[in-house]
Design goal:
The protein has about 210 residues and is α+β, with helices and mostly antiparallel strands. The protein has six helices and five strands, in the order αααααβββαββ. α4 runs antiparallel to α5. The longest helix has about 35 residues.
Length: about 210
Amino acid sequence: MGEFFAATLTFPTALFTFALFVVIGFWLLVLVGGTETELLDGAESGSAVGSLDALGLGGVPVTVAVTGLVTLSWFSSLVGTVAVGAIGLSGIGAVLAGFVALIIAVVAAVAGTRLVVIPLRRFFRAGTEPSREDFIGRLCVVRTGHVDTEFGQAELTSADGSSAIIQVRQSALHAATAPLTQGDSAVVFEYDPATDAFWVAALEGN
């Protein structure tokens, strides 16, 4: 048991041991109702979310992805630390071996977490109710000959990659300065629930 605790406090495992305690403490608070799983989820455009997306770990709450990364990194680095200790390296050799174990642990953690995240995405996506407001700020492509205050349709691609034909409208002022015709790109800036239509403006460069 003493060797186990020594390994958890040895480089590179020590780097993840504190993070693992933080993760465990967070989930204990969740269990007793002291906090919520959305605590770390912040804005969708946050740098943390962007980094996870780049690693292929998007589509689930940040808390879930971070928990997987920390846990698997800790376990992988622990195995590497024990393996390095078994070899009997010391000095600069042990340090270099530790860095190699760190790199392998992180790569293995990312790969392992991705395998867990992939099937979970469908669950979290299904539990999220889509909203018309989600279309605001997105680009669309006009599919009718023109767009005015009473007529127009456009094709819009949502965040999950699916496309939809939506009713769009363009104000008289916008139509006078930058009229929209078939094939033009436009940006959605407002939703009108009374008419179930979206107000759009021409994208610069059309």
